[in-house]
C-alpha cells in the first residue's frame, strides 16, 4: 500500500518517468546495477543476493527491488492493497 501512496504523492510534485520500489531491509551490493526503467518490461533488480547465496529464491520472484515506468505502473494498477506486513505483494505484482 505504501508503494502506491508514494507513487501518487511524488507524481503531484514532478512528472517522473521511472520508479524504483525497494524493500527497506535490503541494501544494494553491486554499484554497477543500472537503476533505470526499461521500456519493454519492468525490471527485477535483486536477482542475486547474499542472503540467498546469490541465487534467485524461486523462479518468478519479483520482490526486493524492482523498476517500472509510469506507464507500466498504470497498466498494472499499482501494487495490490490486499497485503499487509511481509510477503505476497511482489508476487502479486509479477502476475500483473
UniProtKB/TrEMBL annotation:
Gene3D superfamilies: Spore Coat Polysaccharide Biosynthesis Protein SpsA, Chain A. Pfam families: Glyco_transf_7C, Glyco_transf_7N. GO terms for biological process: carbohydrate metabolic process. GO terms for molecular function: galactosyltransferase activity. It is found in: Membrane. It comes from the Eukaryota. The keyword Glycosyltransferase applies. Pathway: Protein modification; protein glycosylation. GO terms for cellular component: Golgi apparatus; membrane. Residues 43-96 form the Galactosyltransferase C-terminal domain. Keywords: Glycoprotein, Glycosyltransferase, Membrane, Signal-anchor, Transferase, Transmembrane, Transmembrane helix. Residues 1-38 form the Galactosyltransferase N-terminal domain. It is a single-pass type II membrane protein. Belongs to the glycosyltransferase 7 family. This is Glyco_transf_7C domain-containing protein.
Amino acid at each position: 500500500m505504501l508503494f502506491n501512496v508514494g507513487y501518487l504523492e511524488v507524481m503531484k510534485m514532478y512528472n517522473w518517468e521511472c520508479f524504483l520500489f525497494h524493500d527497506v531491509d535490503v541494501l544494494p551490493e553491486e554499484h554497477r546495477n543500472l537503476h533505470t526503467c526499461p521500456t519493454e518490461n519492468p525490471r527485477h533488480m535483486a536477482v542475486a543476493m547474499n542472503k540467498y547465496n546469490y541465487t534467485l529464491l524461486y523462479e518468478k520472484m519479483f520482490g526486493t527491488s524492482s523498476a517500472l515506468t509510469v506507464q507500466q505502473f498504470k497498466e498494472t494498477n499499482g501494487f495490490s492493497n490486499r497485503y499487509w506486513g511481509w510477503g505476497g505483494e511482489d508476487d502479486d505484482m509479477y502476475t500483473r
